[in-house]
Design goal:
Blueprint lengths: L18 H9 L3 H14 L3 H23 L5 H26 L9 H7 L6
C-alpha cells in the first residue's frame, strides 16, 4: 500500500526589515552628523541591515575625503576629482535607495570592498 506523499511546506520568506533597521540604514547616508547619529542608534540595537549600510556609508565618506586630497593637484587632479565626485554622487543615490528599500545591495565597483575592509566595524 502506497502512502500519499505530502507536499513540502511553503518556503518562509526572509523577515522584512523593521522601521528601526531601516532608520539606521537611511540615516547613515545623511552627512557626517547623520552617520554619527546612525552609529549611536545602531549601538543600542545591532542589526545586519544597519551594519551593512554603515559600512557602505563609511566607505563613501572616506572616498569623498580621499578625492578631496587629489583635487589639490592642478588640472589633472581637478578632472579626476570632478569625475570622482560625480561617481560618488551616483553611488550615494544607489546606496540611499537600497537603504530605503531595506536591501543589502552593494555599491557598484566598490561596495564589496567596503564590506571586506570594514568587516569588523559595526558588528
Amino acid at each position: 500500500m502506497d502512502s500519499p506523499v505530502s507536499p513540502p511546506p511553503p518556503a518562509v520568506p526572509p523577515p522584512s526589515p523593521t522601521g528601526e533597521d531601516k532608520t539606521v540604514a537611511i540615516v547613515s547616508y545623511l552627512t557626517l552628523i547623520g552617520f554619527v547619529v546612525a552609529v549611536v542608534l545602531h549601538s543600542s540595537k545591532k542589526t545586519a541591515l544597519g551594519s551593512y549600510h554603515l559600512r557602505q556609508a563609511l566607505g563613501l565618506m572616506l572616498a569623498f575625503f580621499a578625492i578631496g586630497f587629489v583635487c589639490v593637484i592642478p588640472i589633472l587632479g581637478w578632472i579626476v576629482g570632478f569625475v570622482g565626485y560625480v561617481a560618488l554622487l551616483v553611488f550615494w543615490v544607489l546606496g540611499f535607495m537600497a537603504a530605503i528599500n531595506g536591501e543589502m545591495k552593494p555599491l557598484p565597483l566598490i561596495g564589496e570592498h567596503f564590506q571586506k575592509w570594514f568587516a569588523g566595524a559595526f558588528s
